[in-house]
């Protein structure tokens, strides 16, 4: 096996395992005595985990301020938080929640000391000034299995509406100092969240595996992540009390964050950005409802234009993995992959785009705004008609 050249950017120190939330206060204390806790809208505060966190911080002699993030964070949300807390003596920012809370915490940690607007640094909008830092130490504690934000260097921020956008504030300095991944935190996730986030994580693994920037290290991580997601996603959707399934999906999500940060993504995430900006569609739902169709069109385009492309064999490998039929020929394995993804989409009750108000008249605008950084690492360059066909198939 030829090992091609590759580079590896920063990843957090990782603490993974059930019950390891108990380590959080001690880890936070290494950075000082004043913390900013950034959480989601309120589910964490109503859970049995919140008293454990706050009592643990108190036992370490720490004080804290709390910020709740309702929904996906906007640049305005981040800027307001930076203005509010800029003068506070904050030593560490702790993000505890889903991807929205972690992305907001990551951006806030990056800007509390500089004090400027996040719009200065967002990709594709504004002046795109280089980020010099310094960032306040950031600890990521995911409570869902989906975005992998605990392992990435980008904070995704959104403005929703006709002129909306979904863009990243991205820099190695934003990578968490620690990712504390406790699968027990998934026990309170409702099935709809498990479905959407789980399909997001799986899509990230699949897209990074076939990405034009994939390499031997990311391939091995993505392969292992897809294997445990195959065994864990539907089981966790059926029963959040399944501790084995929780561990599998927490691991798959963590690995997906590492692989996407190193290898990039593809057409599903390219389309998820404008869909999430223009319509009230959760990111994981957008990914889950598109991935089967996008995979089919990628395969058809590769067969037509680049029949010897290595991604075709990679897609076949995934089809054999998911179907548990290791002897399938390439075409049959492709069919098995698409059939499995279709079956998951239906089993997880992921809605079509119509449910969120997307109509055929919206397709040209969605396509025109889909060619961001994710689309650049799709294994084949899709033309506008092919991208449009992905969207049309899910309306």
Walk me through the topology.
Blueprint: E1 13-16, H1 24-29, E2 34-39, H2 49-59, E3 63-68, H3 75-85, E4 92-97, H4 99-111, E5 138-142, E6 154-159, E7 165-170, E8 178-181, H5 191-210, H6 216-238, H7 243-263, H8 267-278, H9 283-305, H10 310-323, H11 330-347, H12 363-368, H13 373-376, H14 384-393
Parallel strand pairs: 1-8, 2-3, 2-4, 4-5, 5-8
Antiparallel strand pairs: 6-7
Helix pairs in contact: 3-4, 5-6, 5-7, 5-9, 6-7, 8-9, 9-11, 9-14, 10-11
The strand count comes to 8
Please report the number of helical segments.
14
Q: What percentage of amino acids are in beta strands?
A: 5-15%
Q: What value does the Rg take, in angstroms?
A: 20 Å
**Average of the residue pLDDT scores:** 95
What is the general shape? Answer: globular
Describe this entry's structure for a reader:
This protein is an alpha/beta fold. The chain is 49% helix and 11% strand. The chain has 14 helices and eight strands. The chain has a six-stranded parallel β-sheet with strand order 1-8-5-4-2-3. Strands 6-7 form a two-stranded antiparallel sheet. Strand 2 (34-39), helix 2 (49-59) and strand 3 (63-68) form a beta-alpha-beta unit. It is globular and about 60 Å long. The chain starts with 12 loop residues before the first strand and ends with a helix.
